[in-house]
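[retry 2/3] Flagellar basal body rod protein FlgB: previous attempt timed out, resubmitting with same input.
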Amino acid sequence: MNLFSPVISQLEHGLQASALKQKTYAANIANVDTPNYKAQRVSFQSVLEQQLTPGSTTHRTDPRHISFSQNSVSGIKLETLHTTQRQPNGNNVDIDLEMAELAKNQLWYNAMTERISGKFSSLRSVINEGK
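[retry 2/3] Flagellar basal body rod protein FlgB: success.
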């Protein structure tokens, strides 16, 4: 019996990837005036490959033990963008693009947190009704 549905696990991975994207956008914004700084992006391809590859599981000594997946965002790659140069000092950070992507990612993160909160509220309701 699996107490948590696969949806909760998928939401967890989505939240982790979104948090990494948020950190990347924040780093780009923080370095907007740093000479020769090149903007970075979270590689969508590496995120997709990681989610499609089945994770390893822990060794269980008893079939009744819960299996835990080893999936995380640790293997996601950051790509450095070398295609454009926005400033004469060699920096290629487009502050408007970074702020827009940051806002879009924040909305995505908020939607996922609301969804996972709803899942846990449903579990809490089931547990409380069973008393």
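[retry 2/3] Flagellar basal body rod protein FlgB: The chain has a mean pLDDT of 80.
[retry 2/3] clearing retry counter.
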